[in-house]
Task: inverse folding
């Protein structure tokens, strides 16, 4: 599945994301003005009708999921049924013979996915039932460390050497404090759970974090967002997130049985930290 949406930082660009696949990378390179974004982990193409049409032809429209904003921008006359079909296409495509079958399956393993340290780390995280996001972040952190210390083995890395590596992440790559903490936690997990070492602490001085005020929408702006959403499913999700403050993953996994209409409560199952909790800011109606 190829997903296309308007980039949040630069509306003049479209973000194109798909499972890692050499066929897809070759196809997207045919779009003029395309470039890879390391921060967003996706391809960026010009936000033009020509680019949208070319992406649809290259990958096949049946393999593309367009964000509602993209559909409304280039097809303002589209009916709600067509918008729903473009934003939620049938997957896998029914009765569509395509040469791009690689998009329907998991991408092939990369070289570092077979590295003993990476395999051991992923196995340990899966056994302890860590979330997929944690597994993905820790895996990327360990792969970056392996590439940095080559040809030295990560198992031979000392605390001082890892401390120097952390400084390079801050000074050279200018990573934020939260991202550096992911690298620290991934390395600590590997040392303690895989190598069986004693716990170690790493102290890194970060630059002061700017205290920015959040963007708060007015009531009229919030209503305009709800009214502009033609999909009943997404409008319901938006309203629930706005009213309760639930995380997107928590809302996506809600069931009717989790709604206590009589007491106006929501039972959140396996929320952050895989913990259940009761959300009391709900205004549910029967």
Result:
């Amino acid at each position: 599945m190829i997903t296309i949406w308007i980039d949040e930082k630069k509306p003049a660009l479209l973000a194109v994301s798909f499972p890692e696949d050499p066929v897809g990378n070759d196809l997207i390179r045919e779009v003029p003005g395309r470039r890879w974004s390391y921060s967003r982990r996706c391809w960026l193409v010009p936000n033009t009708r020509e680019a949208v049409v070319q992406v649809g032809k290259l990958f096949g429209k049946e393999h593309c999921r367009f964000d509602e904003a993209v559909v409304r921008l280039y097809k303002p006359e589209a009916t709600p049924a067509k918008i729903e079909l473009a934003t939620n296409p049938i997957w896998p495509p029914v009765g569509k013979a395509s040469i791009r079958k690689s998009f329907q399956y998991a991408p092939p393993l990369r070289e570092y996915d077979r590295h003993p340290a990476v395999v051991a780390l992923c196995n340990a995280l899966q056994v302890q039932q860590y979330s997929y996001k944690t597994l993905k972040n820790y895996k990327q952190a360990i792969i970056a460390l392996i590439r940095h210390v080559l040809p030295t083995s990560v198992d031979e890395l000392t605390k001082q050497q890892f401390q120097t590596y952390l400084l390079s992440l801050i000074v050279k790559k200018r990573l934020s404090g939260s991202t550096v903490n992911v690298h620290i936690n991934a390395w600590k997990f590997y040392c303690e759970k895989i190598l069986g070492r004693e716990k170690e602490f790493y102290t890194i001085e970060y630059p002061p974090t700017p205290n920015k005020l959040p963007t708060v929408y007015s009531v009229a702006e919030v209503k305009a967002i709800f009214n502009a959403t033609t999909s009943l499913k997404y409008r319901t999700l938006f309203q629930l997130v706005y009213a309760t403050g639930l995380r997107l993953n928590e809302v996506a996994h809600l069931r009717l049985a989790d709604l206590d209409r009589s007491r106006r409560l929501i039972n959140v199952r396996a929320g952050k930290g895989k913990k259940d909790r009761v959300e009391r800011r709900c205004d549910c109606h029967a």
